[in-house]
Amino acid sequence: MQTIKQRYSIVGNCEALNRALDVALQVAPTDLSVLIVGESGVGKEIIPRVIHDNSPRRREKYFAINCGSIPEGTIDSELFGHVKGSFTGAINDSPGYFGVAHKGTLFLDEVGELPMATQARLLRVLETGEYIPVGATEVRKTDVRIVAATNVNIQQAISEGRFREDLYYRLNQVPVQMPPLRDRGEDIVLLFRLFALQMAEKYRMDKVVLTDEAKQLLMRYKWPGNVRQLKNITEQISILSPDRLITPDVLLRFIPQDQESTQLATVHRDGDHSFESEREILYKILFELRGNVNDIRREMSALKKKIDDGAPIAAAPSTLPTTQLAPLQPVNPIATPLEDAEAEEYVEPERVPESLNLNDLGRQMLEKALERNGGNRKKAAQELGISDRTLYRRLKQYGLEK
User: Among residues 70, 54, 52, 76, which one has the least CA distance to residue 62?
Assistant: First the structure.
């Protein structure tokens, strides 16, 4: 274990880190797929190098690919290759990473960012060793060892439909859990000392040293950025601090005190962000909207029945405020039945005064229908969704029979 740590410049003696390295060494001689899980910045990229260098494939090629950095439109071509002319810019054949890394190892970092279509193709490669380059018609074979890594909660991604469950189980033949920096105890101080020594040697300056109180403060911080953040802060202190003996007061000037930033590190303990609450809110809005639409439909159907039957309509306040009718304003008044046309009139306050009663509203609707149809009563009745007889009766009622 100490030899491995020295070879790859791994600093730390925490139990979780030693367990991760031990699993990597045990699985290295096999061809089993490995899934490395851990927060961003914990050093997941070390594990695939350990696996490859201690495997029978160590003399073959090793490729590390960040799946989140490749555009969705080109990721299939990058991984599986393409043939000349298969798309704009494909001026030559390309074997892709699976073709070039034959007999070697592929490290797929941020595998949780792969598009669903690419996940299906990756699953086929893992199960059969077969793939088809983009634009090709023949199946090709490859023998590649896959080591994947992710910083997202894959189980949560599966439940949200963003990751294939069958691919997860195929990649997760051997899981490796990398511990976050906040759980590594005194390893934090050892890493600070290493980074400070590297800066002193690189820029020929005195090394910064922590007091005991500063060490305790360093270990109590939550380190949302993990080892990467610790290295950045150590480099900042080495360059910007005039004092070489670092006290808690000096350290606090470089450690972020924003509560939001420190809380980011606890996301994986309490569970990743879920969209369940957002779904509940959307469902509630949709149900309320459906109820409002049903109420409007009932009111307008009753009004239409009264108009068809020729019953007098007394002025009465609507049970629904006009603000609830506002979403209906895109309705086309020419191609809609009477109830929708009336709903349209409610959302035009500049044309219909608030004090206007239903008799005046019906009169205006008839006038507009006749005007739009050049005085043709039959077409006007069809537009309003009423019979010719009802139209003639309403014209007589409103004094529009001439």
Answer: 52
